[in-house]
Design goal:
- The protein is 63% helix and 15% strand.
- By secondary structure, the chain is an alpha+beta fold.
- It has two domains: 3-107, N-terminal domain of the delta subunit of the F1F0-ATP synthase (Peroxidase, domain 1, Orthogonal Bundle), CATH 1.10.520.20; 111-183, no CATH class.
- Strands 2-1-3-4 form a four-stranded mixed sheet.
- Helix 1 (3-25) packs antiparallel against helix 2 (28-44), helix 2 crosses helix 3 and helix 2 (28-44) packs antiparallel against helix 6 (94-108).
- It comes from Stenomitos frigidus AS-A4.
Amino acid sequence: MSDSVITSEISAPYAQALMSLAKTENLSDRFGEDASSILNLLKESPDLDQFLASPVVSLDAKKAVLQQVLGDQVHPHIRNFLLLIVDHRRIAFLSGILKQYQALLRELNQTALAQIVSTVPLNEAQQQTVRERVIALTGAQNVEIETTIDPDLIGGVIIKVGSQIIDASLRGQLRRISLRLGSTT
């Protein structure tokens, strides 16, 4: 089995349990905000991510660091959940669990995720245009935009929504032209 399949099999039950708690307490969106904050923190601090995933660091040290770093910034249920997954030795899967929770939250809120790769950041008008096209394409109520900057695109954008990819980049157009030219010889 691949690592992503194993991660998914471990992450899914924890994410579903967190969603179940969130629905019971009517805190789904709040937990989603906390999940985003924690994911951003882990992305900005790879050292913290490595520390939490390390098998040589004691469980108590991991709990102490989590409580110190997060403080009162997250809901107490989220903090307790994190301490629980430390106890279950699943903290190395934290990013996967939180991303899975976000996917469940998007499904609950009928929100589509549009992953955009562009050469420069999109302005608000461009983002709104993408939102409108994705809503028309998917029928979703809302659209969440996740952007990545890739200067190798030369220009244009690549938009991924679920399994659909819209490649409107100059690099993609050049590749298609090259394929057409190669097939005519």
